[in-house]
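May I ask for a protein sequence together with how it folds?
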Amino acid sequence: MTRTVSAAGPTLAVVAREAGVSVPTASKVVNGRADVAPETRRRVTEVLDRLGYVRRRRTGPPKPYGMVDLVLSSLDGSGAAVLRGAERAAHAEGLEVVVSTGRHLGRDRLDRLAARGTAGVLFHGDGLTASQHAWLTRHRVPYVLIDPGREPSPDSVSVGAADRQGGRAAAGHLLALGHERIALVAGHGRSARLAGWREALAAAGLPHRPEYVRRTGPDEPEECGARRRTLELLDLPEPPTAVCADSDAMAPGVYGALAERGLRVPDDVAVVGFGDLPEARWAVPGLTTVRRPLAEMAGAALALLVRMAAGEPTDGLPVELATELVVRSSTAPPPAAGAGAAAGASRPGRAPAGRRARAGGAAGGQRYAAETL
């Protein structure tokens, strides 16, 4: 027997009949209500997905002002900058922002999001799964990805930073200071930064040294992972004179590992971060880093979302905002040949590691701790 579904899609009554529940119960599931038994919700959700039910949007003329949702991976670090940028841009557009956090958006949360009548959604962080993307597309909810951690799908609209350019700038700055043994402590993603770093070294005629690239694990805290990887670099027969940290959140781990071995920044080893988060300005010595314009990225994403909600076309191409090298006090020319570059070496007449008082640029009062993690 073949079931016929209208071109407009299945009605809620059809969904209820297929799931063996009443129409009001099916409506509760569609609208994200909490007063539904888990097994009933699961059964209705399966039918909704199988039949391709699309929740009907509220009727009436489109409103120029309303509400948008902002889903953040966290409220710390980069998330806080994204929130500031989105709120500032939304205020200028006359929009309210509903903020939620969490990397995992299940069907219940998506249903509640749509039930609010949102004009669209800004997602910050790791991006969307295929099922989340399909749900949003099917329900005609416009969305924009802000700084997605992995390559977005071709039909997603995203706003990011020119990280490849930033990687080249970080390595190029160290090369200009005279460094040749430049290492990278990287996360498990962010391939654009690594590509830019490699391009700068290749352009300078330096051979590729795989031992100078160390990655933290996917479930490893960034600071702890960076500390461990930096210690591994310092144990090499020819340790680096400069370390590029893949994010400012890794820089405390790099600073800590160097202090543990009696090495100082930047006298013995220069350090560059990535992001220009507040931690970079608080560090002593102030962290040279690559600024990623997170607040501006959020503002650009909201402007795109407003256009999409109004039915205006977009070219669908990823938007990349320029990065900028911010030079502070953590970088200097490499030590002279044979002047104590070996890991763990101490220099006579110098203060012990971790006691350095010099600050520069925008460095503030807080210093990266060198504690064992």
Notes: The chain has a mean pLDDT of 79.
